[in-house]
Amino acid sequence: MAENELYIGLISGTSVDGVDSVLVNFQQDTPELIASHSHPIGDPLRENILALCVGEDIRLSEFGQTHIELGKIFAEAANAVLNKAGVESNAVTAIGSHGQTVWHEPNAGNPFSLQLADANTIAQRTGITTVADMRGRDISAGGQGAPLAPLLHQHIFASSSENRAIINIGGISNVTCLRQGAKPIAFDAGPGNVLMDFWINKHQQKKYDDGGGWASSGTVHNELLQLCRNEPYFSKALPKSSGRELFNGSWLENKLAQCQGAIQPQDVQATMLQLTVDTIVDALDPHCQSLFICGGGAHNRALMQGLAQARPNCTVASTLTLGVDPDWVEAIAFAWIARETCAGRKIDTSGFTGTSAAVMLGGIYRA
After folding, report:
1. pTM value?
2. Which residue from 61, 144, 193, 216 has the fewest beta carbons nearer than 10 Å?
3. Are the CB atoms for 207 and 197 separated by under 8 Å?
């Protein structure tokens, strides 16, 4: 095993349920997942992060300390996956750290995407060179800064025999259309799990709807569904990206306030699942033959069934069918980006984020 092909990928997604950490070997065309680890984020810190994600006020001191604390947790996640694999830190070329997005505003007058988890802290506490702030460089080149995981989707999942879509369903869902003979297209379709997670947490104090069981017990409320589908983001031209700064609990509560009469909680959950299905299906290339799902949504049986029913002529399966565990695709993507950046290779994200030129993604923090 060539030591310069070992990389670590770190990410905490919009669900803020923990840090996903992977150790990957990139010697072969398909990345070899050596080890994986999910590192918890404690509730006090998680609540601070979720408050930031919806624009709540926070003291600058608390903001800075959250940044450093997350850096420590990300470093712990990296060290934990090394321990699990029995690999020394000096065998790893670099860490690709996405960090934790707390605000994403690529269409502002001065566009930006803000991720916390101090890269200096990660490099210092692991002894491994760390690549971070990938989205910022993309935005500086005129891009949306998101989605970036489709870079890996294109690299390892494209097929010469069929038209595919790779759908990452985390808090937000993003779709990568891989059509034969055409340039790949990718964008954020809309809410993935974020609204369902919010609603079940509010009513049942659970972090997620296991298997979509609660949603399955309800009935889609058509008035609420239509109000949600009227959101201007869904008809916005490409490139586009989104996050919790738009799709959050307040957004859902606002839609509910516009409905006539009370709606049973389980019916709201069913409607949010249907919204995720509908916005994904609306985003698909009509020529798509197979849908491969990654992220937490791959474990939501009701969501997978909904996609299969909406596109009966398509194969619907998780990326495990293609040899890559759906839980770790996004973390692997940021390990891969770190590899490209450390090698000095510029990446063309124009079909995904709308950049004006290929760029090297992220800054390098030497160990």
Report:
1. 0.94
2. 61
3. yes
| Residues forming a β-bridge with 363 | 132
What residue ranges in 232-325 does DSSP mark as E strands?
A: 290-294, 315-318
b/e burial code for range 316-346 (CB count within 10 A of at least 16 → b):
bbbbeebebebbbbbbbbbbbbbbbbbeeee
Are 77 and 328 spatial neighbours (Cβ–Cβ below 8 Å)? Answer: no
Q: Are 11 and 98 in contact (CB under 8 A)?
A: yes
pLDDT digits (tens, 9 = 90+) for 45-96: 999 999 999 889 989 999 999 999 999 999 999 999 999 999 999 999 999 9
Q: Six-digit token pair at 39? A: 């590192």
| Domains of the chain listed by start with CATH number | 3-143+330-365 (3.30.420.40), 150-322 (3.30.420.40)
pLDDT digits (tens, 9 = 90+) for 333-357: 999 999 999 999 999 999 999 999 9
